[in-house]
Structure formats: structure tokens, C-alpha cells
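Write out the 3D structure for:
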Amino acid sequence: MNTRYRFALAGSFVALSAIVSVIAAPALPDQVVSNWNAAGEPSGTLSKPLALGLVPVVTAGLLGVFAVIPRIDPLRANIDEFRPYYDWFVVIFTAYLFLIHAGIIAFNLGYEFDFVYLILFGGAGLFYYCGVVLTHAKRNWFVGIRTPWTLSNEEVWNRTHALGGKLFKLTAILAVVGLLFGEYALYFFLVPAVATAVTTVVYSYYLYGRFERTEPSSPDLEY
């Protein structure tokens, strides 16, 4: 399966979102529940037209952005090296947005379930695959842990992404475990996610400083 077919698969989730909206529209109330608090209680609504159109339109726009990124990146040849992983991320991301959209509609049609659990379970899968992508990502300007230090040194990029990939996967696992802890489940995702972001940034800074001290002639970013 090449890039064209993978993006076509991603596009099918956009189409499914639109189809679900059209089919469900007559049965939905004028105000659609669209927000939930950490305890899984509804906390906000959108008008029906906005709720039905928001996810399909946003997903279509993001899909267009994802298609353009590999063409405009100055280091596009590096993206080509992990292009299948990038493409599958796009597929999984659009599938996740479709899942959320379908979940919102199902909830408003009267199906009772904890919507926060749906977000966390789907988000854990997405986060885990982000970890997979990170372990294969080559240096580029759009995809990965892009700090001044990873972009300036290829070895810093590689080591930071090796660590980041493991931390993203660990965050996903903790998010699934958190589903056993009721209203605290959200924190099993948010706290590790923030810790992962901080750790990878600090680690890239530390590595760059160490390489600069031991290898002052480290190559700069090539254009």
C-alpha cells in the first residue's frame, strides 16, 4: 500500500464523519452535548449545525495540511525515509477524530456511556502510535520533537526521539491503566503527557550541551 492509498484510507474517515452527520441530523436535538468534565458529566453544548460539521471540516483541513507537509519541508528527503509511518499516523489520527465524532453523535442519540473513557482509550492508541513514529522519525522541521537542540544536531535528534518514543508508549499504557480509576483516569494521561514533554525538551538541551563540550565541531543543520 503506497502513500496515495493510505491517504485515501484517511480520507474515507472524513467521508464517514460527514455521512454519519447527515444520517443522524434529523434525530439530534438543536443543542448537542459536546463537552464533558473529568467526571464524565456533560459540561457544554454546540448548536446542531456546528456540532455536525465541525469535526468533518477540521479533519478535512488537517488532512490537507498533512498532505502538504512532506512536500514543503526543506528536509523532505528525511521524511521520505519514514514516510509509511507518517502516513499511518495520518490514518490513525483521522480515525481517532471519526471515533470522537461518532461518539458525540451516539451520546446525543441517547446511548449512555462515559465519554471521557472513549477519549482516553482512543487517545491512548494514538499516543502509542506517536511513540512508534518517533522511534523512526528522521530530522525534519514538522514531525517529531522539534527543539532548537534536536534540529541542530542529528545525534541529539536520534537520542531524544529514542527516549521520547518510549515515554509516549509508556504514557499510552498508563492512560489505559487509568481507566480503572474512575474520575481520576484523566490524570493518568495528562500528568505523564506533560512529564514526557518536559523530559524530552530538557533531555535534548542536556545532550546538546554535552556534545558541544565534547565535540565542538558537531555539524550544524544542513539545508
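The helical segments are 3-24, 48-72, 76-81, 83-108, 115-136, 148-152, 154-178, 185-214.
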